[in-house]
Amino acid sequence: MMGYGRGRALRHSRFQWVLAIAAIGAAVALPVVLVSVGGGVSQHELANLENAGYQIVVSAGGSHGIAGAHALSQRILSVASVTVASPVLSVAIDAFAPNGAVSPVLAEGVIPGEFTPTLGPTESGLFPSPLPLGDPSDARHYANGSFDGPATYDVLVSTPLESAFHLRIGQQLLLSQSTNRSLGVEYNITGSFGVPPTLLGPTGAFAILVPLSDLQVLTGYGAANASSVYDAADTIQVAVAGSVSTNPSALSNVRDQVQSLVPFYSVTSLTQEAEQLQSASAVLTGFYLALSSVGLTVGLIFLALVLLRRVEIDRRSIGIRRALGLPAWSIVGGIMREGVYIAALGALAGVLGGYLVVESLARWATAAVQEAAQLAVFDPVILSAIVAGVVGLSVLASSVATRAALRTEITEALR
Amino acid sequence: MTDEVRPPLIELARAARTYGRGTADEVHALRDVDLTMPPGEFLSVEGPSGCGKTTLLNLLGLLDTPTTGEVRWDGRPVGNLSDRERSRLRLTGVGFIFQRFYLLPTLTTRENVELPMRALGLPRSERARRASGLLKEVGLGGRERAFPHQLSGGEEQRVAVARALANRPGVLLADEPTGELDTGNTRAILDLLVRVRRDRGATLILVTHNPEVARRAGRHLTMSDGTVVRDVREA
């Protein structure tokens, strides 16, 4: 380390040290928070994907864009290795509780017998099995596209909704496609289902589950006339046999066969989705780091200024050393050591600060932020890379000061 | 201290040093000075303030380069040496004693003396042995752990002398080494320098205003306005 002046100069340089460490620490804390929380949420989403009970998703552009959902599911089921084809329609409707409470809820229409096998390990424990929604195949009410069969008018409610509306199994719940109660239909509450303990889970808190054809008719997304059948869904979730689900090329082969059945729809395997998510996560991480580089640049400029100031203060000391014949590297080394030391302390303070920020968010922030923060992952490789990057860049920042030190005229410095 | 050194033959050939060349503040600190210093000579440099004494010392000690002319060590021009080579020559061949001591305030007495030896890469034990010996020689055997601000002016200058001798240089350059000392300390420092020069055969170049100090030298240089106006050798 370069020699210090005594008293005031020493206190002054310590203050500058603290400021430089704080500036670098703040710059490092930002990416630590963003990368750890962002990475944690991504990993969580990835785990949800990997734990899903289906492997292929058929979807269409626009709102409720899949037409002929019942028939199409049957055709997909005929593809070799496909064990389940579960069409899902999600529509926001209004629920009118017996106690007069009204709330918009997210309704999901499913074919009960197809829906249950698509639940992952996390979700399957939350739903009654089999689903108490009457006809497991939804074929009776659908009645080959006529929607003339008898509807069961059974509904499952989520436990938060059950609790908020003080609902009980056996009660009636009026569901309507709008706030107009007169358009509503009475449904029997035949059961409830739980929601994962996180808002970031796959199921919304205020939700209901009804047979697909019931929801289609209620919301106008299922109807028949003389010339055509309107039988809409948002997605069809497809599960394959166990041996195929773990074999990427076999899964890809099944995906291709499904795609050939529905050339105008998007057919993706969850493997692809996971890859896309990982890729998006990597882009986001890069974006976070790029964003943080602005703060880091400011921190490093501050470090360079602190070191330049030190060279100014130590000008005579540098002149004496050079006059005595001390090699340039020993003077450069002293400045570099100081720069690296400050940067390393700042980076470590930033990592610690970032960790404490995430911990604080996990305890005291709003519910959604809390849950995101609780998912944070502190990857030692990424954190080490951040610290190493900062330390590496500090060498660059120090070089400004070392150039100034080496340009010091000995005779001028000793005057 | 009996280590024999081989001081170089130092020459200045029409050496001039101009500061602020081409500006309104142009100063000719040294004008076409010719000087030959045989090895082992004791030279005093006298003259009024601003006559170019320190500039001459800086050129001889490779702290500065002439604007025109040449400085040669053993016949070799040093103007073409790289900064690294000049630093090395200063480290191994020159011992500086400055008027204002220029000790490093954060280092102890012993660390200040060890500094040039550390740069030379001497082992710790050798550095410690040599620093202790030198400090004893300058009468500061018990002050090894003291910091410069805990020393008197005379003591600080003696530490500076010990530091100048640390790497056993062939050339000792002293810029008014007794300028800030009382009579007793002046005599002690001068006795020490003369003894070192005699025992080790080093070249000693001493800038002074003090005629009593100058009288101890074997050759006397008087400068005025950047030129040598008198160069006298004792018989």
Brief write-up:
The complex is a heterodimer of chains A (415) and B (235). Chain A is of the alpha+beta class. Chain A has helices at residues 8-50, 69-77, 112-115, 121-124, 139-142, 159-164, 212-219, 242-245, 248-261, 270-313, 315-323, 328-364, 367-374, 380-406, 410-413; strands at residues 56-59, 82-96, 102-110, 154-158, 172-176, 185-193, 207-211, 222-224, 229-231, 235-240, 266-269.
- Measured as a percent range, the helix fraction of chain B is 25-40%
Tell me the CATH topology of chain B: Rossmann fold
Order of helices and strands of chain B: EEEHEEHEHHHEHEHEE
The Rg value of chain A, from CA coordinates, equals 32 Å
- Determine the N-to-C terminus distance of chain A: 24 Å
Order of helices and strands of chain A: HEHEEHHHEHEEEHEEEHHEHHHHHH
In the CATH hierarchy, what is the architecture of chain B at level 2? Answer: 3-Layer(aba) Sandwich
Instruction: Give the low-confidence spans of chain B.
Output: none
Structure commentary:
The complex is a heterodimer of chains A (415) and B (235). Helix content of chain A is 54%, strand content 16%. Chain A is an alpha+beta fold and 415 residues long. Chain A has 2 domains: 8-47 and 276-413, no CATH class; 61-264, no CATH class. Chain A has a 6-stranded mixed beta barrel. In chain A, strands 8-9 form a two-stranded antiparallel sheet. Residues 1-10 of chain A have low confidence and may be disordered. Chain B has a single domain, classed as P-loop containing nucleotide triphosphate hydrolases (Rossmann fold). Chain B is globular, with a radius of gyration of 17 Å. The relative contact order of chain B is 0.21. The model of chain B has no long low-confidence stretch (mean pLDDT 90). Chain A binds chain B through residues 3-6, 316-317, 320-328, 330, 410-411, 414, and chain B through 58, 63-64, 83-84, 87-92, 94, 96, 98, 102, 104-107, 115-116, 119, 149, 163.
